[in-house]
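Narrative of activities, Objective 1.

The group set out to show that a structural description can be obtained from nothing but a protein's sequence at a throughput compatible with the screening campaign. Below is one input-output pair from the validation batch, recorded exactly as produced.
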Amino acid sequence: MNIFFYHQQNPSKDINQGGVSYNKLYVEHMLANIAFTSKRFPKSKIFFINDQCHAFPKNLSENVTLIDLNKIKNPSLKLVRHFNFLKNYFHIDENSRRLGNYCAIPLTLSFFERWFYIYNVLTSCGIENFVGLDSDCILLEDMSSHDYKKIGINHPPSQEDCWPNSLTCSTANLNKFLDFICFFYEGVQKQKNKEKYINSFFDKPRTAVCDMALWYLFKKQNPDLFVNNLTIDPDNGVHDWGLGHDATPFTTMSAQKYNPQGALQTVDIKQIFYTEDGVCFKKKDTKELIKIISLHFSPGTLKFDMIPFIDEYEKIYSFKSE
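Output recorded for this entry:
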């Protein structure tokens, strides 16, 4: 497998959640995830694109390649398509406008731009397919057998978003997605009422638009490019789109966690069961165990549970590498 992680430091230098230095802790857990992935899949090539290369160990693992985002961000390396996207991009986020959170614009824009940078690395390295993981998403099972001619992505129930926290995709199809988002924003710029135009593609008005919404529209307009929803994959395993999101189908437990805004909340998170066959969720209705293929530690400070989970996993399974 060719596995890609992407990390760009949040524009805010000091995000505190309950006295916790968010960025520092996030990096610690992210590096633990990358180290886990390199050991779990030693035959895979892992690419870590980030803007803090100077702060990370140079020898994470033999199969991990550090790629300096600051270097590939060089304007001379941007292709015309990328420049056209930046020229036409239109930011819509009612919450950030109301709160005066101007950091939301570069942050949301970075969600789109990561796919341009990942594509540049894919093409420069001659890579035909890849698994893209959010830095708070842990891959537990091998995805080598996936049909990479088809895009695998999570489409949560009752949402007009696709969550690419665990994305399986070919380089050719990522290229099509980049063409799609450029074409979409070219259309936006031609409109007098841009927000009305954007909302015309969805069933209800959007309070915000990021790459998840465009993945949804791309899937809606190109269904033949996608496999069935990765939320439940063909082998009856689950790519979890969020440990604390939509726990309704599975048994849960209560936990106190800080949400992304820094407020302490009691939330229901999915229970994790360690079995001989691997890590599982349990369905509420049938009590059937469903194998977890990837586990997304979201939202908020759930991502700070990654290291304890990795320690428990390695202890129980004596770390079985593929």
